[in-house]
Amino acid sequence: MTAQVQSLPTNINFSDRVSAALYGGRPQSVATHARVVNVSSSPVDIITPNTKVFGMGLPSPPPERDEEGCLPTIHTEPVDSLLRSGIASAALAAAAHQPDAEAAFFVADLGHVYRQHLRWTRCLPNVTPFYAVKANPDPVVLRLLSALGSGFDCASMNEINMVSEIGVDPSRVIFANPCKPTSFVKHAARMGVDMTTFDNVDELVKIARVHPGAKLVLRILTDDSKSLCRLGLKFGASLIAVPTLLVKAKELGLNVVGISFHVGSGCYDTGAFADAVARAKKAFEMGREAGYTFTLLDVGGGFEGERFEEAAAVLDQALQTHFGDCPEVKIIAEPGRFYVSEAFTLAANIIARRGPERALLEAETDDGNPRVMYYLNDGVYGSFNCIMFDHQTVHPIWLTVGKVLTDTSSWGSTSNQERTCAMASSSLWGPTCDSIDCVLANVSLPIGLEVGDWLGFRNMGAYTICAASSFNGFDRTKVVYTIGDEFVVENLLLQPTTTM
Ligand SMILES: Cc1ncc(COP(=O)(O)O)c(C=O)c1O
């Protein structure tokens, strides 16, 4: 098939094109931090499902980093358009013999992060989110959440520094790691980060020595048996241990201000929140007996996009039951996955293939055992570390087959796509030389997939980029951002950080 190349205007100024639409007549110089562009005249538009996307000789889309500002380029196109333009850009880069031309990339939908925040405030208006930076420390996401009024749950010195650098006031940070290096506690003290969790006597002794003015939050153990990641295996004091810990804190002259818990990350039993709040109430009573008046309840993370409304309703009911008559108690949470999981889509390139030729695959019966091995340029040592560390299973969609874009309308569901392709049992591997680097051991994929084709993976925003390594010299996957049609996000990102 020959490429259907259409002529493009040669003098597109992306920033100018959006100034009318987005800046509403404001001078262009207002946009000092982010360059928001609409790429609708980039290669995106001229790729149709039947267009061969390789070697089209098209002009390059705008660079992903704005040299003048501190934030990268922010697009306004829908995620799928950016997937298409990313694929087209890679084809151009390959034609120009650029190194790493076919690099995998994420598309981050900041509009989705914004909508998740609206969902949060609608369902839990009295619970202030302190976003768990560990889930995805993307600087643009942090900046957006800061502008939306979120606090931050930091687990380390570097995470404290990240939020401090974007102007977050230390009162909006909780150092929510119950077992911290002494030097990190000293650093928190220097930075004015006072709120921190503990669950053992040694931590109390450490904090008394290096951060005596800390506002301590006792993390209690709750039932996390219905969660993907059982954090209680490592952290949380049982209710039996609480009185002793509080007596010790009093002895050391420490200020314990409240209780925290975490029902486990990826919690699929909404009832866990009700049980945990009831336990927290008991811990509050123990606090009173030890001479403390607690004013903070931290209900942790564990919220998921899918069952959020249900979990929020259970939590809200439990809060009313146990803390409804305690207006002095401020309630915070540490959601991570909830905000970012569905906001990031990964596009990865098939860099190698081992298996019979297509004609043979078509002729042979598929007995369900993998017949083709595909190698992607992102793997378990990279963004797919979520398979190991976060117990995830990932689901590919095929963005191109035989180097031709598939119908974008089928990108929503794998089953739709399967109906239109001849399939073969296959396996998917990462790019490193380690055989543990297996993304999917047995997955049905189109027979027509070739080296150079692209696969997409939705819901890749949580616990992916943050734990990716550069093992074997493979770069971590870069991110392209869009606000979609949530233009309010642009204003939020452009807010001066000092006023946040
Ligand atoms: C202390 C703490 N808070 C919050 C979170 C975020 O949890 P989630 O992403 O499930 O909301 C975690 C996750 O490990 C955590 O350890």
TrEMBL record:
Cofactor(s) recorded in Swiss-Prot or TrEMBL: pyridoxal 5'-phosphate
Lineage: Eukaryota, Fungi, Dikarya, Basidiomycota, Agaricomycotina
Subunit structure: Homodimer. Only the dimer is catalytically active, as the active sites are constructed of residues from both monomers.
Highest taxon in the source lineage: Eukaryota
Name of this protein: ornithine decarboxylase
E.C. designation(s): 4.1.1.17
Recorded GO CC terms: cytoplasm
InterPro entries in alphabetical order: Ala_racemase/Decarboxylase_C, De-COase2_N, De-COase2_pyr-phos_BS, Orn/DAP/Arg_de-COase, Orn_de-COase, PLP-binding_barrel
Reaction(s) the record says it catalyses: L-ornithine + H(+) = putrescine + CO2
